[in-house]
């Protein structure tokens, strides 16, 4: 009979530790675009306002996409879709301004556009534009 209470206590001690490690390793913006297949949320890091992100990003329908400005860079940016449509779907804006959240500039939307479509966009900051694309699988 004493084995059961000891086992229950051990489980309580181990499980919270596992949850703490998992929370520490998770990213509130999702996973990088390189690992986007099946993800509910992805982030696109803008390496610098001169270089932009590393290539296009392909996502599943319904995925939340968050663009993150360079760490420590507080100038805002704007995501502007240039093909006349937004991957956010019908009736959503084509321009998304960034906002300071957690000490970093971020802009985000949910990909509810047409599957199989490529949405070219520009990242605009200080009158300069960089032009990658979002592709919905």
Q: What top-tier CATH class fits best?
A: Mainly Beta
What is the fold-level CATH name, i.e. the topology?
Immunoglobulin-like
Q: Biggest β-sheet: count, sense, barrel? A: 6 strands, mixed
CATH 2nd-level architecture: Sandwich
Choose one word for the global shape.
globular
**Radius of gyration from CA coordinates:** 20 Å
Structural class: alpha/beta
Topology as a string of helices (H) and strands (E): HEEEEEEEEEEE
The proportion of residues forming helix, as a percent range, comes to: 10-25%
> How far apart are the termini?
56 Å
CATH superfamily: Cupredoxins -  blue copper proteins
Number of strands: 11
Strand percentage lies at 25-35%
Query: Low-confidence parts lasting 5 or more residues at pLDDT below 50?
Result: 1-25
Total domain count: 1
Can you count the helices? Answer: 1
Mean pLDDT, rounded to whole units?
82
What is the subunit organization of this protein? single chain
Region (Disordered): 83-115
Biased composition (Basic and acidic residues): 92-103
How does this structure look, described?
Strands 3, 5, 6, 9, 10 and 11 form a six-stranded mixed β-sheet that branches. Strands 1-2-4-8-7 form a five-stranded mixed β-sheet, with no helix packed on it. It has 137 residues and is α/β, with parallel strands linked by helices. The chain contains one helix and eleven strands; from the N terminus they run αβββββββββββ.
Characteristic terms for this protein:
34% strand, disordered N terminus, Immunoglobulin-like, alpha/beta, single chain, six-stranded mixed β-sheet, five-stranded mixed β-sheet, 137 residues
